[in-house]
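Q: Can I see a sequence and its folded structure?
A: Here is a first one.
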Amino acid sequence: MNTQKVNKILNEIMEYELAGVVRYTHYSLMITGPYRLPIVEFLKEQANESLQHAQQAGELLTGLDGHPSQKIAKIVETNNHSIKDILEESLAHEIHALGLYKELLSTVVDESVYLEEYTRGLIGQEEKHQLELRKMLKDFS
């Protein structure tokens, strides 16, 4: 297994998931209107899950003798805070995260059952988030 490449991807995942914590926390503060409460709750759950995902990636990284980054991925502030805009930006965030996990999977497939299963589980979670966000966006079409 190319441990150096795996560690690089795990660091990217960590940075991106930590950016998700900030992104989803910010979004939860910006929601207004009659649907505020359930959407704020959803976004807070996303922030907590992003933190868990970052911590999991960091644990794997250090287990593979890597060094976790102290950075977070770049977060673009669009200043568009309608519910629709926030959900669309959230969907784009989840799509990018899915790409990172797929890159990790292609690197560890047939090299480590544990890393393969970990990655497949997170791919499933990211795909589920995309489905939920797409369903939430249907009312805005």
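Q: Show me another, different protein.
A: A second, unrelated one:
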Amino acid sequence: MDMIRPSADLRNHYSEISKLCRENRQPVYITVNGRGDTVLMSMDDFQQMQTELELLRTLADAEEDVSTGCVAPIEDTFSDIRRRLLAGRDK
């Protein structure tokens, strides 16, 4: 169930709202004049969401590379990585 609180509760009940976010691991929706305005969530949940979003973007980029034929055999890829690493050590 969505937790919806008026913006005045941020001033008057911040500790309670913060605790709800952390313990329930659910966002709290803040309203201003009865309309959705902001969403609060725990720092851990936010960081997890950011990590998952980054992974999804990486997977989408990889899927696009495959669909456009922008791929190489794994042996070639590792050979290229080794070559670059060795070249970097020689500098």
